[in-house]
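seq as requested:
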Amino acid sequence: MRWDKIRLRVTAALAAGLLAPVAAASTSMATETAGEPATQAAAALPPGSPAAVNGQLKVCGLQLCNSAGKPIQLRGMSTHGIQWYSQCVKAASLDALANDWKADVLRISMYIQEGGYETNPRKFTDMVHGYIEEATKRGMYALVDWHQLTPGDPNANLSRAKTFFTEIAQRHKDKTNIIYDIANEPNNVSWDRVRSYAEQMVPVIRAQDSDGVVLVGTHGWGSLGISDGRDETDIINNPVRATNFMYTFHFYAASHKTEYFNALTRAANRIPLFVTEFGTQTASGDGGNDFTNSQKYLDFLASKKISWTNWNFSDDSRSGAVFKPGTCAGSSFTGTAPLKPAGVWIRDRIRTGDNFPTS
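C-alpha coordinates:
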Protein backbone atom coordinates (compact mmCIF):
# COMPACT_ATOMS: atom_id res chain seq x y z
CA MET A 1 0.00 0.00 0.00
CA ARG A 2 1.02 3.60 -0.53
CA TRP A 3 1.83 4.60 3.02
CA ASP A 4 4.75 2.19 3.27
CA LYS A 5 6.80 4.60 1.19
CA ILE A 6 6.39 7.06 4.07
CA ARG A 7 7.27 4.35 6.52
CA LEU A 8 10.50 3.52 4.75
CA ARG A 9 11.72 7.09 4.82
CA VAL A 10 10.97 7.40 8.51
CA THR A 11 12.56 4.12 9.54
CA ALA A 12 15.42 3.76 7.07
CA ALA A 13 18.04 4.23 9.76
CA LEU A 14 16.46 1.57 11.96
CA ALA A 15 15.46 -1.03 9.39
CA ALA A 16 18.76 -2.86 9.13
CA GLY A 17 19.32 -3.00 12.87
CA LEU A 18 15.83 -3.67 14.17
CA LEU A 19 13.31 -4.96 11.66
CA ALA A 20 15.38 -7.38 9.64
CA PRO A 21 16.69 -9.48 12.57
CA VAL A 22 13.24 -9.72 14.11
CA ALA A 23 11.68 -10.86 10.85
CA ALA A 24 14.51 -13.25 10.06
CA ALA A 25 14.32 -14.86 13.47
CA SER A 26 10.61 -15.55 13.28
CA THR A 27 9.96 -17.18 9.94
CA SER A 28 10.58 -20.77 10.98
CA MET A 29 6.88 -21.46 11.68
CA ALA A 30 5.81 -21.03 8.09
CA THR A 31 8.83 -21.52 5.88
CA GLU A 32 11.83 -23.66 5.16
CA THR A 33 15.38 -22.35 5.24
CA ALA A 34 16.06 -20.16 2.23
CA GLY A 35 17.48 -22.18 -0.63
CA GLU A 36 16.16 -25.54 0.61
CA PRO A 37 13.18 -27.30 -0.96
CA ALA A 38 9.93 -27.54 0.95
CA THR A 39 9.74 -30.80 2.85
CA GLN A 40 6.62 -30.43 5.00
CA ALA A 41 3.58 -32.47 4.10
CA ALA A 42 0.75 -30.63 2.39
CA ALA A 43 -1.88 -29.44 4.82
CA ALA A 44 -5.46 -30.66 4.64
CA LEU A 45 -8.56 -28.52 5.08
CA PRO A 46 -10.31 -29.16 8.42
CA PRO A 47 -13.86 -30.47 7.96
CA GLY A 48 -16.45 -27.75 8.51
CA SER A 49 -13.99 -24.91 7.95
CA PRO A 50 -14.85 -22.09 5.51
CA ALA A 51 -12.56 -23.35 2.76
CA ALA A 52 -13.72 -26.94 3.21
CA VAL A 53 -17.41 -25.96 3.12
CA ASN A 54 -17.14 -23.60 0.15
CA GLY A 55 -14.56 -25.54 -1.87
CA GLN A 56 -13.09 -24.31 -5.13
CA LEU A 57 -14.19 -20.74 -5.75
CA LYS A 58 -15.22 -19.43 -9.14
CA VAL A 59 -16.41 -16.19 -10.65
CA CYS A 60 -20.03 -16.41 -11.78
CA GLY A 61 -21.19 -13.23 -13.45
CA LEU A 62 -20.28 -10.37 -11.11
CA GLN A 63 -20.01 -12.60 -8.04
CA LEU A 64 -17.46 -14.73 -6.26
CA CYS A 65 -19.19 -18.09 -5.86
CA ASN A 66 -18.47 -21.30 -4.01
CA SER A 67 -18.23 -24.73 -5.60
CA ALA A 68 -22.03 -25.04 -5.54
CA GLY A 69 -22.42 -21.79 -7.48
CA LYS A 70 -23.69 -19.80 -4.48
CA PRO A 71 -22.44 -16.20 -4.21
CA ILE A 72 -20.39 -15.72 -1.04
CA GLN A 73 -18.55 -12.96 0.75
CA LEU A 74 -15.15 -13.74 2.25
CA ARG A 75 -13.92 -11.62 5.17
CA GLY A 76 -10.44 -11.64 6.60
CA MET A 77 -7.12 -9.93 7.18
CA SER A 78 -4.02 -8.98 5.24
CA THR A 79 -0.60 -9.46 6.72
CA HIS A 80 1.73 -6.50 6.77
CA GLY A 81 4.81 -6.88 4.56
CA ILE A 82 6.29 -10.24 5.51
CA GLN A 83 9.82 -8.83 5.24
CA TRP A 84 9.03 -6.61 8.25
CA TYR A 85 6.33 -8.33 10.30
CA SER A 86 6.62 -12.07 9.84
CA GLN A 87 6.78 -12.28 13.66
CA CYS A 88 3.07 -11.44 13.63
CA VAL A 89 2.19 -14.43 11.43
CA LYS A 90 2.73 -17.47 13.60
CA ALA A 91 0.81 -20.39 15.04
CA ALA A 92 -0.84 -18.49 17.90
CA SER A 93 -1.90 -15.49 15.81
CA LEU A 94 -3.21 -17.62 12.95
CA ASP A 95 -5.11 -19.81 15.40
CA ALA A 96 -6.73 -16.65 16.75
CA LEU A 97 -7.53 -15.37 13.29
CA ALA A 98 -9.20 -18.62 12.24
CA ASN A 99 -10.88 -19.67 15.48
CA ASP A 100 -11.48 -16.51 17.52
CA TRP A 101 -11.91 -13.95 14.75
CA LYS A 102 -13.53 -16.61 12.52
CA ALA A 103 -11.85 -15.26 9.40
CA ASP A 104 -12.01 -17.29 6.24
CA VAL A 105 -9.27 -15.63 4.18
CA LEU A 106 -5.66 -14.63 4.85
CA ARG A 107 -4.03 -12.22 2.42
CA ILE A 108 -0.29 -12.96 2.28
CA SER A 109 1.36 -9.63 1.49
CA MET A 110 4.72 -10.21 -0.18
CA TYR A 111 6.40 -6.98 -1.27
CA ILE A 112 8.53 -7.18 -4.39
CA GLN A 113 10.78 -4.21 -3.77
CA GLU A 114 11.34 -2.41 -0.43
CA GLY A 115 13.36 -5.25 1.05
CA GLY A 116 11.07 -7.96 -0.28
CA TYR A 117 11.10 -10.63 -2.99
CA GLU A 118 13.78 -9.14 -5.26
CA THR A 119 16.34 -9.27 -2.43
CA ASN A 120 16.00 -13.05 -2.00
CA PRO A 121 13.47 -14.78 -4.26
CA ARG A 122 14.06 -18.22 -2.77
CA LYS A 123 13.51 -17.07 0.81
CA PHE A 124 10.32 -15.16 0.10
CA THR A 125 8.85 -17.80 -2.17
CA ASP A 126 9.38 -20.39 0.55
CA MET A 127 7.80 -18.08 3.11
CA VAL A 128 4.69 -17.83 0.95
CA HIS A 129 4.61 -21.60 0.47
CA GLY A 130 4.66 -21.97 4.25
CA TYR A 131 1.94 -19.40 4.88
CA ILE A 132 -0.29 -21.10 2.31
CA GLU A 133 0.09 -24.37 4.20
CA GLU A 134 -0.64 -22.68 7.53
CA ALA A 135 -3.80 -21.03 6.17
CA THR A 136 -4.86 -24.38 4.70
CA LYS A 137 -4.39 -26.21 8.01
CA ARG A 138 -6.82 -23.73 9.57
CA GLY A 139 -9.38 -23.92 6.78
CA MET A 140 -8.85 -20.40 5.45
CA TYR A 141 -8.43 -19.28 1.86
CA ALA A 142 -4.89 -18.12 1.05
CA LEU A 143 -4.83 -14.96 -1.06
CA VAL A 144 -1.32 -14.63 -2.51
CA ASP A 145 -0.58 -10.92 -2.89
CA TRP A 146 2.15 -9.87 -5.36
CA HIS A 147 2.62 -6.58 -3.53
CA GLN A 148 4.20 -4.42 -6.22
CA LEU A 149 4.01 -0.77 -5.28
CA THR A 150 7.08 1.12 -6.49
CA PRO A 151 7.54 1.08 -9.44
CA GLY A 152 3.84 1.47 -10.11
CA ASP A 153 3.87 -0.23 -13.52
CA PRO A 154 3.54 -3.98 -12.85
CA ASN A 155 5.30 -4.72 -16.13
CA ALA A 156 8.54 -3.68 -14.43
CA ASN A 157 8.31 -6.94 -12.45
CA LEU A 158 6.83 -9.14 -15.20
CA SER A 159 9.71 -11.60 -15.37
CA ARG A 160 9.83 -11.96 -11.59
CA ALA A 161 6.05 -12.43 -11.46
CA LYS A 162 6.15 -15.19 -14.06
CA THR A 163 8.83 -17.05 -12.10
CA PHE A 164 7.07 -16.67 -8.77
CA PHE A 165 3.54 -17.53 -9.84
CA THR A 166 4.68 -20.49 -11.93
CA GLU A 167 6.14 -22.10 -8.83
CA ILE A 168 3.29 -21.11 -6.49
CA ALA A 169 0.61 -22.34 -8.88
CA GLN A 170 2.46 -25.54 -9.75
CA ARG A 171 2.93 -26.54 -6.12
CA HIS A 172 -0.55 -25.61 -4.90
CA LYS A 173 -2.65 -26.32 -8.00
CA ASP A 174 -4.47 -29.19 -6.34
CA LYS A 175 -5.61 -27.06 -3.42
CA THR A 176 -9.07 -25.51 -3.57
CA ASN A 177 -8.26 -22.54 -1.29
CA ILE A 178 -5.76 -20.52 -3.38
CA ILE A 179 -6.49 -17.07 -4.82
CA TYR A 180 -3.90 -15.30 -6.93
CA ASP A 181 -3.54 -11.49 -6.80
CA ILE A 182 -1.04 -10.65 -9.52
CA ALA A 183 -0.58 -6.89 -8.94
CA ASN A 184 -1.26 -4.99 -5.74
CA GLU A 185 -1.64 -1.26 -6.50
CA PRO A 186 -0.70 -0.16 -10.02
CA ASN A 187 -0.11 3.59 -9.99
CA ASN A 188 1.01 6.34 -12.34
CA VAL A 189 0.40 3.90 -15.17
CA SER A 190 -2.38 3.60 -17.73
CA TRP A 191 -5.05 0.93 -17.50
CA ASP A 192 -3.90 -0.36 -20.89
CA ARG A 193 -0.50 -1.19 -19.38
CA VAL A 194 -2.10 -2.97 -16.43
CA ARG A 195 -4.41 -4.87 -18.75
CA SER A 196 -1.46 -5.95 -20.91
CA TYR A 197 0.36 -7.23 -17.84
CA ALA A 198 -2.68 -9.19 -16.66
CA GLU A 199 -3.19 -10.80 -20.06
CA GLN A 200 0.41 -12.00 -19.98
CA MET A 201 0.17 -13.30 -16.41
CA VAL A 202 -3.12 -15.18 -16.51
CA PRO A 203 -1.84 -17.81 -18.99
CA VAL A 204 1.21 -18.36 -16.75
CA ILE A 205 -1.04 -19.32 -13.86
CA ARG A 206 -3.53 -21.22 -16.01
CA ALA A 207 -0.72 -23.40 -17.38
CA GLN A 208 -0.34 -24.77 -13.85
CA ASP A 209 -3.71 -24.19 -12.17
CA SER A 210 -6.67 -24.23 -14.53
CA ASP A 211 -9.37 -23.15 -12.08
CA GLY A 212 -7.85 -20.77 -9.51
CA VAL A 213 -9.44 -17.32 -9.22
CA VAL A 214 -7.07 -14.56 -10.40
CA LEU A 215 -7.24 -10.92 -9.30
CA VAL A 216 -5.52 -7.78 -10.57
CA GLY A 217 -5.24 -4.35 -8.98
CA THR A 218 -6.94 -1.46 -10.69
CA HIS A 219 -4.99 1.66 -11.65
CA GLY A 220 -4.68 4.61 -9.27
CA TRP A 221 -3.46 2.51 -6.31
CA GLY A 222 -6.40 0.14 -6.59
CA SER A 223 -8.92 3.00 -6.75
CA LEU A 224 -10.55 2.10 -10.09
CA GLY A 225 -8.41 4.93 -11.49
CA ILE A 226 -9.80 7.71 -9.26
CA SER A 227 -6.48 8.52 -7.56
CA ASP A 228 -4.84 8.83 -10.99
CA GLY A 229 -7.53 11.20 -12.29
CA ARG A 230 -9.35 8.44 -14.21
CA ASP A 231 -12.34 6.26 -13.41
CA GLU A 232 -13.84 2.80 -13.80
CA THR A 233 -14.85 3.32 -17.43
CA ASP A 234 -11.25 2.59 -18.45
CA ILE A 235 -11.77 -0.96 -17.19
CA ILE A 236 -15.36 -1.40 -18.26
CA ASN A 237 -14.50 -0.36 -21.82
CA ASN A 238 -11.33 -2.48 -21.94
CA PRO A 239 -11.73 -5.47 -19.63
CA VAL A 240 -9.04 -8.09 -19.17
CA ARG A 241 -9.65 -10.94 -21.58
CA ALA A 242 -9.79 -13.75 -19.05
CA THR A 243 -12.28 -15.95 -17.25
CA ASN A 244 -12.49 -16.67 -13.53
CA PHE A 245 -11.04 -13.21 -13.05
CA MET A 246 -11.78 -10.24 -10.76
CA TYR A 247 -10.60 -6.66 -10.22
CA THR A 248 -9.49 -5.25 -6.88
CA PHE A 249 -10.49 -2.05 -5.13
CA HIS A 250 -8.75 -0.45 -2.13
CA PHE A 251 -10.04 2.28 0.16
CA TYR A 252 -9.11 4.09 3.36
CA ALA A 253 -12.29 5.39 4.93
CA ALA A 254 -10.95 8.59 6.52
CA SER A 255 -9.48 9.70 3.18
CA HIS A 256 -11.65 8.14 0.48
CA LYS A 257 -15.07 9.68 0.60
CA THR A 258 -17.88 10.24 -1.89
CA GLU A 259 -15.97 10.15 -5.18
CA TYR A 260 -14.36 6.81 -4.35
CA PHE A 261 -17.53 5.30 -2.91
CA ASN A 262 -19.54 6.33 -5.95
CA ALA A 263 -16.97 4.79 -8.30
CA LEU A 264 -17.19 1.56 -6.32
CA THR A 265 -20.99 1.48 -6.48
CA ARG A 266 -21.01 2.11 -10.22
CA ALA A 267 -18.30 -0.45 -10.94
CA ALA A 268 -19.95 -3.14 -8.81
CA ASN A 269 -22.80 -3.24 -11.32
CA ARG A 270 -20.44 -3.82 -14.23
CA ILE A 271 -17.36 -5.82 -13.19
CA PRO A 272 -16.56 -8.47 -10.53
CA LEU A 273 -14.74 -6.87 -7.59
CA PHE A 274 -12.76 -8.00 -4.54
CA VAL A 275 -11.66 -5.43 -1.91
CA THR A 276 -8.27 -6.88 -1.07
CA GLU A 277 -7.23 -3.96 1.14
CA PHE A 278 -8.95 -1.28 3.20
CA GLY A 279 -8.46 0.65 6.41
CA THR A 280 -10.66 2.62 8.76
CA GLN A 281 -8.16 5.50 8.88
CA THR A 282 -6.38 7.70 6.32
CA ALA A 283 -4.44 6.49 3.31
CA SER A 284 -1.29 6.90 5.42
CA GLY A 285 -2.52 3.99 7.52
CA ASP A 286 -2.55 6.21 10.58
CA GLY A 287 -4.63 8.83 12.35
CA GLY A 288 -8.14 8.65 13.68
CA ASN A 289 -10.60 5.99 12.64
CA ASP A 290 -13.65 6.91 10.59
CA PHE A 291 -15.88 4.03 11.60
CA THR A 292 -18.98 5.72 10.20
CA ASN A 293 -17.65 5.86 6.65
CA SER A 294 -16.08 2.43 7.08
CA GLN A 295 -19.47 1.00 7.98
CA LYS A 296 -21.03 2.68 4.94
CA TYR A 297 -18.52 0.87 2.75
CA LEU A 298 -18.94 -2.47 4.52
CA ASP A 299 -22.72 -2.28 4.37
CA PHE A 300 -22.48 -1.82 0.63
CA LEU A 301 -19.97 -4.64 0.24
CA ALA A 302 -22.27 -6.93 2.23
CA SER A 303 -25.24 -5.99 0.07
CA LYS A 304 -23.27 -7.00 -3.04
CA LYS A 305 -21.43 -9.91 -1.40
CA ILE A 306 -18.09 -8.33 -2.31
CA SER A 307 -15.28 -9.99 -0.37
CA TRP A 308 -12.70 -8.06 1.63
CA THR A 309 -9.49 -8.21 3.63
CA ASN A 310 -8.47 -5.51 6.08
CA TRP A 311 -5.01 -3.91 6.35
CA ASN A 312 -3.25 -5.07 8.55
CA PHE A 313 -2.54 -8.02 10.84
CA SER A 314 0.49 -6.64 12.68
CA ASP A 315 1.59 -4.63 15.72
CA ASP A 316 3.02 -1.70 13.78
CA SER A 317 2.67 1.58 15.68
CA ARG A 318 0.11 3.04 13.26
CA SER A 319 -3.59 2.95 14.06
CA GLY A 320 -4.27 0.70 11.06
CA ALA A 321 -2.30 -2.22 12.52
CA VAL A 322 -4.79 -4.20 14.60
CA PHE A 323 -2.48 -5.26 17.47
CA LYS A 324 -1.02 -3.03 20.15
CA PRO A 325 2.76 -2.53 19.84
CA GLY A 326 4.71 -5.45 21.29
CA THR A 327 1.88 -7.96 20.93
CA CYS A 328 3.64 -10.03 18.29
CA ALA A 329 6.57 -10.80 20.59
CA GLY A 330 4.19 -12.77 22.78
CA SER A 331 1.64 -15.52 22.27
CA SER A 332 -1.66 -13.90 23.31
CA PHE A 333 -3.81 -12.90 20.32
CA THR A 334 -7.39 -13.86 21.25
CA GLY A 335 -10.12 -11.56 22.49
CA THR A 336 -9.97 -7.77 22.41
CA ALA A 337 -7.25 -7.09 25.00
CA PRO A 338 -4.36 -7.17 22.47
CA LEU A 339 -6.20 -4.96 19.98
CA LYS A 340 -6.21 -1.28 19.08
CA PRO A 341 -9.62 0.32 18.43
CA ALA A 342 -9.46 -0.56 14.74
CA GLY A 343 -8.69 -4.15 15.66
CA VAL A 344 -11.66 -4.39 18.02
CA TRP A 345 -13.93 -2.97 15.33
CA ILE A 346 -12.73 -5.14 12.46
CA ARG A 347 -12.63 -8.35 14.53
CA ASP A 348 -16.31 -7.85 15.34
CA ARG A 349 -17.19 -7.42 11.67
CA ILE A 350 -15.27 -10.51 10.63
CA ARG A 351 -16.91 -12.57 13.37
CA THR A 352 -20.40 -11.66 12.14
CA GLY A 353 -19.70 -12.39 8.49
CA ASP A 354 -21.65 -14.65 6.18
CA ASN A 355 -18.79 -17.13 6.05
CA PHE A 356 -20.48 -20.51 5.96
CA PRO A 357 -23.04 -20.83 3.18
CA THR A 358 -24.17 -24.42 2.85
CA SER A 359 -26.20 -24.44 -0.33
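The CA atoms of residues 183 and 216 lie 5 Å apart.
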